[in-house]
Amino acid sequence: MGEGWGGGASGGRLSRRFLLLAPLALAACGFTPAYAPGGGADRLLGTIWVQDPDTKAGFDLVERLEERLGRPEAVRYDLAYVITTEAVGVGLTEESQITRYNLKGVVDYTLTERATGTRVAGGRVQSFTAYSATGSTVAGLAAEEDAALRLMRILADQIVARLIAVSASLP
Questions:
Q1: Residue numbers of the domain that contains 86
Q2: pLDDT tens sequence across 76-92
Q3: For 46, 61, 99, 150, which has the most beta carbons within 10 A of its beta carbon?
Q4: Is residue 1 part of a domain?
């Protein structure tokens, strides 16, 4: 028999005991799950109007933000953003043909309380994704579009995580 997660019979009991008691310890110190009723994510659902997109990248970002935060219903906050992307060739053939690109993206965002116009949160998120430039022109364009969509989803998820983290301090 394997020793399991705890490293033996007594370690296994210790691990199970830890798993059973950990939620109680976290609750005692004021920890609230973000997606629990009344948690940080719950406070933000349907309360944020994201600025209208004017590019494909903006559309993909807004789509993911609304997927995670809900469509705005009882708007309390406005979320403005600026997207910057750059494709950087990283794979070269012997003939100096680029075969792979990294697509880097940065989003600067600001969350403003609608009633007062006060900036209540904001920051910068950044990440990258990659795609292959080998194959046909159509395949390369499809790979580039897919990478851009994945990048905007990653960046939107980072924004949501940061907003949830500060949600308890929002007015």
A1: 37-169
A2: 999 999 999 999 999 88
A3: 61
A4: no
